[in-house]
Amino acid sequence: MQVGLVGYGYWGQKVAHNLGRFVLKSVCDLIPLRLAQARQDFCNILVSTQIEDLLNDTEIQAIFIITPLSTHYTLTKQALLANKHVFVEKPMSSTLQEAKELYMLAKERHKILHCDLTFLYTPSILWIKNNLQQLGQVLSIASRWLLGICRKDTCALYDLAWHALSILSFLYPHALSTSSHLSLLKAPHPNHPTLSTANLHFNIVEIMASLNISWLSPFKVRDMLFIGTQNTLYYNDNALKPLSITPTSLESKQVKTHHPTLPAFSALFKCIESFYQSILNTTPCFDQKRVVLDVLGFLERLTLAP
């Protein structure tokens, strides 16, 4: 199945090298140096600065959109109207209403619209999804997503917080749509007018949740701490052994930590393979649409909260 790729920056290049059973035919980017890099990386591909060249190519069945957030809605809509399946980088759009419109258009056109939720395909998160019961009743979840590129067309909420929130929505279906006691503490920086540092607090049923995000941290942190009545789980995406399970104990701190054995595979490759299978089966994968809409809805509620 031949595809086109729009955006050949850092993540676009990662996507291009993880296409699996897709065949990359064309790359589109506004920067000539990136197109030169694409030609160097892949023999016999076509390059263009005009997305129309990809959309008008009847051999291209799907479009990968790996561009800044401000362009996602327009480019995705163009691709769907051109009868292409679409894989779009997260977040799918800037607003909940735009995302709903894109999903509706995809349904009307009988096309697959797939958002890049790579973290949901990692061995660690899949293990947590299947083994949450080992923790007993989860009392609290604390997440930290620190260090990122300061962007002009979005804020850290839609960049960094998206990952942790999509994981929570994946683990607890509809949790974000029914969350309560939302609060957002901002730490403005004079040289960064967009929101770059924040603390979020909210409740998921009886679980107390918090999320600390910052573009400005000098250290890269991607972790989540699940405290349960039976066991405590620490997830650290940067560690060689990303999962640590420790018995929850008030009496003794001399406890043994267990590191589950995880399979080794590329989460991005799995995410793209899921898109491929969805096209073959003409059915969107798992409940991806729900996760996307839940996270966008939560972020809109959060930013409007007093």
UniProtKB/TrEMBL annotation:
Taxonomic superkingdom: Bacteria
- One short Pfam name that applies is GFO_IDH_MocA
One GO molecular function term? nucleotide binding
Every Gfo/Idh/MocA-like oxidoreductase N-terminal domain range: 2-115
InterPro entries listed in its UniProt record: Gfo/Idh/MocA-like_OxRdtase_N, Gfo/Idh/MocA_Oxidoreductases, NAD(P)-bd_dom_sf
Record PANTHER family: BILIVERDIN REDUCTASE A, GFO_IDH_MOCA-LIKE OXIDOREDUCTASE N-TERMINAL DOMAIN-CONTAINING PROTEIN
Q: What is this protein called?
A: Gfo/Idh/MocA-like oxidoreductase N-terminal domain-containing protein
Q: Which organism was this protein described from?
A: Helicobacter suis
